[in-house]
Structure formats: structure tokens, C-alpha cells
Amino acid sequence: MKNSTKFIIVELEGRKIRIPQGLTVIEALWDTGYDVKRGIGCLSGLCGACTVAFIEKGSTKVKFGLGCQKVAEEGLNVIMMPCFPSRAARYAMEAMAHPLEELGAHYPELYTCNDCGACNVCPEWINVAGVMKFAKDGDYEAAASRVTDCIMCGLCASRCPRSIAPQYVALYIQRALARERPFPPNLAKRLAQVESLAYETEWSRIAAMGDDELKALCAAMEGL
Q1: Which residues have CB under 8 Å from 168's CB, separation 6+?
Q2: Which residues form the 2Fe-2S ferredoxin-type domain (predicted)?
Q3: Pairing relationship of beta strands 7-12 and 77-80 according to DSSP bridges
Q4: Does position 166 have pLDDT exceeding 90, yes or no?
Q5: Rounded to whole angstroms, how far apart are CA atoms 86 and 43?
Q6: 7-80 topology per CATH
Q7: Quick one: CA torsion of 124, 130, 132, 138, rounded to 10 degrees?
């Protein structure tokens, strides 16, 4: 029986190679014998470790993405990108009365942003330039609401001519907002119950159960 596998020609890390069609960039590297360990994380598009830069066939524009998600296509020219060095401020937010007021002290470079838009290379389709504009203007809620999908890959920082690290600025804002918001009363109640060992007897009983007893308990809780 004839092998029906289709092959394509791509350029990986500066070398033209023949690979089976349908592989991601990471899978293609492994398929061709590259011992890729650095820059490999979850392989699910969540950790942001495997950033790549690529040019598609017939194009001159360099694009960016994740190696575990980008499927190799005929004529693709792609390289793995190293972890980009970005400055992450060191701070003790629990010691700050109003951490949002101290954003400029920890990330003064934010206010040198000239809205060039070079940071809009996010593999999660976040409008990074827009987030930075909200941050500069003090609209922190708007900034935080637009970065919930950030995977901290750092591609935005690698493109910024002002040496701003948008991923760290956004993380600071999210942490500061959480610190300044009123503590949810239902969460406070539950934490107090945990600290007072209110459920210790019940957990001890569950921990002593065998597999069959646990299955029966779960079935009863789910109403099965």
C-alpha cells in the first residue's frame, strides 16, 4: 500500500527541510531531529514559552506567534525566539497603601510610550498599545479588563523601542486593583472557616474513605 503522507518544504532555523504536512513548528523541529528543550512549556498555547517569528510564503512581513500553535505550511520561514530580557520591577505591594498611585515609581518608562503600536504582536490578539494607553491615562480598570488572556510571552516587550515591558506593567495593575478593591465578604467568611479548622472533622472522615466509599459519596453529592 502506497504511503499517503504529504510532505512540504519549510525553512526552520535557517535550514530548508522536508516535513510531513500538518505539524506545528515545535513538532516539525522534533521531527527533524532538533533537540528542543529550551522554550518548551505546556504545548497548549497557555504558557507563552515557545514564541516564534515567521514569514509566510509570498510575504515579506515578519509575524509572531507560538510554536506549539503555528502549523507549518509550504514555504514557511520560521525561527524560535529566545526569552527576551525585560525589566520586572521589584516591589512589596502589601506594604503600599495605594499601589496604583505608585505605578509611575516602579515603571516610569510607561510614560515614555509614544503610541507607535509596535507592541501589537500579541499571539492572544490583545491590543497591547491600547492597554498601555489606558494605563498611561489612569484608566486602570479598562487596562486590566483587556489583558486577562495575557500569557506573559514577552513578545510585546521585544518590539518596544522605549524598553517598556507591557506584560509586567499590566500584571502590576491587575495586582494593584485586586489589592485596592474591597475584600469579598463571602471569601473572607470561607477563609475564616478554613483557618479555624471548621471542616477538619469532615475532611478527616473523607480522607479515611476507600475508593468505593468516595465514589458513593460523590454520586450522592451529585444526586446520582
Answers
A1: 86, 87, 88, 89, 107, 157
A2: 6-84
A3: parallel
A4: yes
A5: 23
A6: Ubiquitin-like (UB roll) (3.10.20)
A7: -130
Q: Which sequence spans correspond to the domains of the chain?
A: 7-80, 93-180, 185-221
Determine the average pLDDT of the residues in 33-55. 84
Residues whose CB falls within 8 Å of the CB of residue 35, separated by 6 or more in sequence, listed in order: none
Q: Which residues are CB-contacts of 175 (< 8 A; sequence separation ≥ 6)? A: 93, 99
Instruction: Look at the block and give the residue holding cell 465514589.
Output: 215
d(CA 84, CA 51) in angstroms, rounded, equals 10
pLDDT band at 34 (very low <50, low <70, confident <90, very high): confident
Beta-bridge partners for 12: 15, 78
pTM: 0.74
